[in-house]
Structure formats: C-alpha cells, structure tokens
Predict the structure of Peroxin 11C.
Amino acid sequence: MPRDDFGLSVYYMYASPREHHEWACTSFTCPSSATGGGYIPSPTSSLIFLSQSVFGIQAHRDPILHFSSLEASINCHPSHRRETDSMADSVEKPGAPSPSIAPVPSKKDASSTPSTTKPAAQTAVVGVKQFDRFVLRLNKLLSTPGGIASTLSTVNYALYILTHFSPRLSKLPVPLLSSLFTPSAKPTATLNPNGLPPVAALATLLAQTRTTLRLFGTLPLYAWLRSLLINGGGPKPGADPVLHRIAVLQASGYFIFQALENICVLVDHGIVSSGVVAALNRGERTTARVYKVAFRAWLGAILCDFLRLGREAQIEGRRREARRKLQADGHEIAINQDEEDAKVDRKWWSDLIIASAWLPMAAHFGSSNGIPGWNIGAMGVCGLVAGGERFVGLWKATA
C-alpha cells in the first residue's frame, strides 16, 4: 500500500471498511505488525489489543467509537474499572464524549453512529461515477450522425442568449455587434480580443465552426435531391404526388442555399477568387448580395415545411375519417391505433414548432432591411427552440 497522501486518499475512496481496518492495523496500531520491526505501540493501540485479547471485542472502523465501546465493556468488569478510569483521565481523545457531559454510549449506540468520513467518501465516489457517465454519454452523442452539429447548434444558440444579457455587450459598437452574429461574418482574427465578452467570443467561434462544417452539407443535399428526381422525377409507387413536389422544391431550396453559402465562405477566406462571386453577382465582387440570395432560398425551403405539414394534415384527416366510418360499420381497428395516432400528432406539432422557430430567422436575413427589433437574443431563442428538441432526443438515446 503506498504511503503518499494521494495513494492514501484513493485507497480510502475505493477500499471496503474491512480493508480500511486491516490496513490501519498493519500500518499503525496492531501490535501483531510490530513483530517484523521495532514498533512500539501507543497506549490506545495497546488498550485496543488488550480488549481484543481479553474480552473479544471486535475493532470498530471508527477509532473514536471503538474506544467508546471498549470503555463501556471494560467498565462492566469490576477488576478493571479503576484502571480504565485512570486511563480515560490521562488519555485525551479528540471528539470522544466526556463522562461529565454525557453518558458513555453503549456498544449498540456506538455501532449505530454513522462515520463522519463515510458520507464524504461516498459523495466523492458518486461524483466520479456521474462525471464518468456524462463523459461517456457525450462521447456517444458526438459519435452519432448529426450529433456534433446538433450539439454545436444548441450550445451556440444558448450562448447567443447569454451574450444578449451580458453587461459588457452594451459597450460594443453597434456595427461591430451586428456583424459578429450574422452568417456572413468574416473571420474575427483582427478584432481586439479584449473587446468581446468571453461568452460572445465563444459564440462567434462556434458560429464560424458550424459554418465551416456546413461546407460538406451539399453532399447529403445532393443525394436527397437526386433520389427525388430519379426515375423521371416522379413519386414512388404509393407516395402522394403533392408531397413529392413539395419535397423537390424544398430539397432544391436547401441545396441552393448551401452551395451559395459555401461559395461566399470560401471567397471571404481568400480560398476562392472573388471572380466567382462577380460572375454570379453582375460583376460585383462582394458577397453580401450572394448571401442575401442564399438566405432567401433557405426561407423558401422553410416555407415548404408549412406546405408539407398542411398536406400531411389533410391526408391524415381523410385516413382517420375513413377509419371512423369503418368502425361505425362494425369493423375492428388495430388495438394500438390510438397510440399510433398520438405519435403522429406529436411529430406533426413538433415539425410545426421547428418550422415556426426557423421562419423569423430566415425572414430576417432574407429581407432587405430585416425584422425591426431583431437581436441576437431573439435569434438565440429561435435557434434553441428549433434545434433543442432534436438535441434532447439524441441525448436521451445515449442513456
């Protein structure tokens, strides 16, 4: 057993009470450990050993409570009462009950008194286990498809809300503040690092990280659009043609948005020549106008969600009406049909809330003058509502 403080603390954290006593005996108090070397037992250890030999008292894990049990047992022997009283007067035990203040506890009372070190050790072990479980769940979340994007999005928009209420934020210039939290913000390496609150600086960093990760977002969007346009661009057998057309419009809007945003990001960082933007922007080499077109494509894709939800509600209403007629005619329905309907309703309302949360943000960035009174706090609330439910679902799946 290592004798340094760190080893001792780790040992006490994981060892059982029996191992505590055995290690303490072999290291400090038990006279049997003195046979290997010149160990001189203390009066307390000699008394404990004497009680174990003569009266058969088992050592308690708490030395103070053990001494109390020992004293109570020796007092029961008339021949040893005088020696015990003199020893109790000469040996001072910190924390031990005084005979003049309180009666000596019996062995049953002493054994029922909880140890003061045990709750602290248990709390430490529980804390370590909870932290370990949190790290493992977070690692599992980040390894799932979309886990990194969902986590960064949730944390980013939560930081927007905190930044909005930061007392140092009001001291920043309005043009600088408005340029930090827009998707078209350029790298902030030239900014004074002391000019931003830490929360705002972290929010800006996460926003740029998410924009960089979206450089690869055109690949799954291309695959989605291709799957909708294959086989002549028509719907699959049994699929609703209206929903298929809405899906094609939405996939096209998302693909245009992501492609234009990627071009603007690469141009702003000097990776792609500004001539590419000039070719798309009637000779103008700045990216502001291209960003505006990209946001409008994003707005159109979000509006397609409302069209899809309206069509799905119409189809589901017809299906349930037909089922009610069959039930009225005496036909049986599935046993868990009510539960399935409840799941469909929850998903429909969840999609409606998400689309409603993204709509004002897309409308603000897609319009020429923006929404009056729009700020990063409102953007943080909208983004947290839109992406928070998905993050909660992914987090629950890691349990």
Observations:
- Residues 1-51, 53-102, 173-177, 187-193 have pLDDT under 50 and may be disordered.
